[in-house]
Every structure is written in structure tokens, then in C-alpha cells.
Amino acid sequence: MALLQISNLSFAYPESPQKALDNITLEVGEGELILLIGPSGCGKSTLLRHLKPELRPHGPKSGGICYAGRNIEQLERRAAALEIGFVQQNPETQIVTDTVWHELAFGLENIGTESGEIRRKVAEMAGFFGIESWFRRSVADLSGGQKQILNLAAIMVMQPRLLLLDEPTAQLDPIAAQEFLTMIEKINRDLAVTVILSEHRLEEIFPLTDRVVVLEKGRILWADKPEEIAQVLEADNRQGIFKALPSPVRIYSELQLRGKCPLTVREGRQWLRQYVRHDSAEGIGAEWPGNLKKTAFSRETKTGDSRPALEAREVWFKYSAEGGDILRGVFLQAYPGEILCLLGGNGTGKTTLLGVLSGTLKLKRGQVWVRGRKLADFKGGDLYRHNLVVLPQNPKALFASETVRGELEETAGLIEQDKTVQEEAISKLVEELGIEALLQRHPYNLSGGEQQKVGIAKLLLLRPKVILLDEPTKGLDACSKEGLAGILVRLCSQGVAIVAVTHDLEFAAEYGDRCALLFDGEIVSEGSPREFFAGNSFYTTAANRMARGIFPQAVTCKDVIRQCQTLQTPRVAASK
Q1: Residue 364 has what pLDDT?
Q2: What are phi and psi of 277, to 5 degrees?
């Protein structure tokens, strides 16, 4: 039985010459798990918002949506609130109360549920999602990942039939993201809740779905089982979408093999053992270390300046006199011409550390230097002119104009008075980031990935020497990540120091010069991407987990592919 029937749905944002959705037709069965994939701005978020009547964006629309046999526009507000749950891209915009327990109870209170039933349902959800330890905390004290988990729990307490999720793992660390997606699968499997979600992180969720729907420029290109979609994307050579597929799929396809394509790390590992034609995994790994001495992304990163562009010594910080220390004696150095990736679980203090480094949070003890000057010595706006810029976790905090072009022109005017030079700088960045079509759009009407691009463009127009990025790849598709990496590499060649807080392990392994792990308020581990990731069991890339014991030093898909290509007589079991 079809729970949703979308027929010839088209939609455009006001004053936009292009359709955000173009003749979408899709049927979703009761209890299905549907994954939406595609480039940033392809219409995933817009489509999801049309399935939640209260969140439907304003603009000309045609076509129709039926939910459980009824026109979704005519669905009673109470039924829509109870039966259709939505987890948005940014958890900040969905939380409405002051404490965790109150947020869980808020929806049930609004529909007049008896207090005893509220307590029972809230207790059940708190236990299921493992939030008992922070049940009575203020939501203001939660990390981004904890807020996302709270949003899901607050929706599931209403017992919906349809659950919509817009990049739900964007702010979760890798381990928490795996656990979150396992919860989604359990909700779908055990409660028969129909789930439709959009994602860019596909390693875990891709093989779990019933169908994958591929969108591009507002249109559905394909809708099929995961294994079929993997083959179609490889054959169609749509690299922008293909590069986002799970590592086993990309490795297998790059080697141009035939047979059943592995979708999971386990399947990829089994295939790889057969491919290398060797009985001893340990012996295989020992044959190939020489080819993996170089970093995954080869470039000249140092500029000859041995002095750090950004330095923190013995930094301590806590939010209140009564609270515990969030940062505990942090020591950090970032040099001109390098990308330092700062990793760690949710709530470990990564965003707090960026706040201290940028001067927006006042440290309790210790000292921070920017380009040889103490942070406290910068007056007025001097720190943020040609010195240091910060991309916040929510790029909306940077927006004040009604159009993207207005945002960029206002920022460019802070540094350069010559209009011609301003326009040249804007045009160059717009082209590099691929945001030409967004210039007349309101920044708040953009997808999460598009907002990231615009926020990055604003910061780069300030010509900084130190760049602090908080989750810069959040919401970006694979091609956009490559484009961003190219810009960051170019800036490094000009002597810029970049510190990126990220949960994107693949991005850190591919493009980082150094990786550091923040745990319990301290930096406990630091090294090159290969040193950092190769010995980890969980906090590492899918490619490394797949190749463990076979190619021990491989941490990226490129590493595994290169090693496979060096084998002279591989036996490909899948092709026989």
C-alpha cells in the first residue's frame, strides 16, 4: 500500500528563474526506507519540506501529493503534527524549550496528552535514545549532535507514521552518526515507520535502504535498489554523484571489475582478500609499505616560515564559575601553508576551542597568539581584517543581506574600495565555488550546503591569513568538497594557515596535513593523516577499515586503488 503518492510536482522559489523541483513523480510504500541523494541544491531539502505541510516553502507550485489517500494540503493540522515527523538540517531551528525533558514533552503537551502518559512516553524515548545522563540539562549546554538526537527523540515520542530527515548526521561525529543511523534502521524495521531521508554521508545508510532516489537539478534521475543505483551511476559517469557513494563501491568501480559490487565494509573486505590472492593478510600488508609513504594528497605545504601563524598554550575554559572545565590545558600550533584538521566526538570542546582561538570566548587561563601577536592586543576589528576569520557551525549567523550578491558585495567593500577589484574578487570566488545561480537568492532560502558555500565565500573575501572552519563540509556533495579543497590548497600555497573542525574523516584523510584528536578537553593525539588514522579501529575511514591487515597504511580510497593496481596477477573471484 502506498503511503505517499507524489504526482508531477514542480516548484520554484520566488524570483528564481530555475525550478527547484521539476515534475517529480514518486510513490512510497508503507514501511519503506527511502534515501534521497544528489548534489547540493538538487532539491532534496525542498522535496522533503513539501511533505510536511507546515514547512512547505513559499513559491509557485504545481502537481499534487497524496498522503494515505488524502491530499496532503487538506490534512488536518493535528494529524499532520502527529503522523509526519521532520528532523531538519540545523537542530538549532527546531528546539523550542529550555530543557531536554521539557523538549521531549512539548509536543505531547500541545495536543493535550494526559500527564501520566506523557511521563511514560518521555521515559521510554529517553531510554531508547540513551539520553538519561543529560535528561535534565539545559538545551543551551548541548552539543550540535546531542541536539540532533533530542530532535529525533522529541518527534518519535509523537509516534509518527512518516519520518522525514534532512541530513540528520551532518553534526554528528562518525561513531555517533553510525549509532544514529542504526536507530533509524531500527525505527523503520521494528516500528514499521516509513522513513525518507537525504544524506551526503552514505557509507552506513546506503546499503540499508529499500530504494535510493537520485536527484539532479530538481528532477528524479533514477529510483531503484542500492546495488542497481551503484551500477547505473558508474555506467552513466555522473562523477559528482558517484564520488559520494560508499568507499567499497568506488574502489570496486574504479578498478573496472565485473560481478557483484560490494556495498558494505564487510563485503568490500571479503572481496579485497580474494582480489589480492593471498592467504595471509599480515603477509600481504608487509609487501606494500613503500608505496604508501607519501601523504594521500601530495603538495608543498610549508612556506619556509617556521613560526606558527596561530598558537594556543595551556588554554583553559569553562562557561560558568560553577561549571566544569571544557578545555583543559590545550596546546595547539597551526603553521602557514598547512591544513590542521581537529577531530573528536560531540561535546568534546572543538567548537568551544574555535571560539577561544577567535576571541569570541574569553579564556580562563593560558594565552593565544595570532601571527606573533597576543589575541588581547588586537583592537576593534583589526583581528578580522587580513588576519583571522571564522566559519561558524551555522553559517546563517554570517548573513544580513536579502541576496547572496548583497552579502558578497558588502563583505568585499570592507577590504577593497575599488569596485572593479571587488567585482573581480567576487566573480572568481563565485566561479570556484559554483554559486553563480544563487546570487539573486535570499541566503535563508538556500540548502545547507549552499549556505556553507556562501559563508565560505564571504570569509575568503576578507583575505585572511588564518582561517578557522567549523564543519566546512557539512551539507556539501563530493564535487563541492573537492572544489573547497582546491581553494584551501591554493590558500595554503599563499601561506594561509587553516584549522578545520570536522567530523568528515574522509576529507581529513584526503586533504589534511595534520590531524589532532580532542578528547576530554585536551588534544591527546596528533600526526599526519596516515599516522593518525591507520591504527584506529572505529575513528578511521571506511577505506582503512576495509583494507586493514591487507594494505595496513591505506587510509583513502585512492590508497587502496593504487595498491590494487600494483598487483601483477590478481584473482578477481567476482568476475568468474
Answers
A1: 83
A2: 55, 60
Residues 166 and 276 both lie in one domain: no
* 259-282: pLDDT as tens digits: 788 999 999 999 998 888 644 444
CA 336 to chain centre: 26
Q: What share of the chain is helix, strand, coil (3-state, %, to 5)?
A: 45, 20, 35
Residue 37, strand partner residues = 214
**Domain-located, residue 457:** yes
Confidence bin at 298 (pLDDT 50/70/90): very low
Residues, the chain, total? 576
Comparing CA positions, the residue from 27, 351, 338 lying closest to residue 196 is 27
If asked whether residues 219 and 252 sit together in one domain, one would say no
pTM over 0.90: no
Between the alpha carbon of residue 555 and those of residues 186, 247, 307, 535, 573, the distances in Å are 30, 11, 30, 10, 24
Residue 547: partners with Cβ closer than 8 Å, 6 or more residues away? 269, 272, 554, 559, 560, 563
Q: What is the CATH number of the domain that holds 506?
A: 3.40.50.300
Question: Band of the pLDDT at 570, cuts 50, 70, 90?
Answer: very low
Give the tens place of pLDDT for each residue, 86-142. Answer: 998 777 778 899 999 999 999 999 888 999 999 999 999 998 888 888 999 999 888
Confidence of residue 294 (pLDDT cuts 50, 70, 90): very low
> Which single residue is written with the C-alpha cell 509523537?
158
Based on the domain organization, do 411 and 511 belong to the same domain? no
213 with 223: CB under 8 angstroms? Answer: yes
Give domain status of residue 412, yes or no.
Answer: yes
Question: Which residues contact residue 476 at a Cβ distance below 8 angstroms, ignoring those fewer than 6 apart?
Answer: 40, 200, 449, 452, 453, 484
Total structural domains within the chain: 4
Expressed as residue numbers, the domain containing 84 is: 28-56+68-236
Spatial distance between the Cα atoms of 277 and 274, rounded to a whole number of angstroms = 5
CA 29 to chain centre: 28
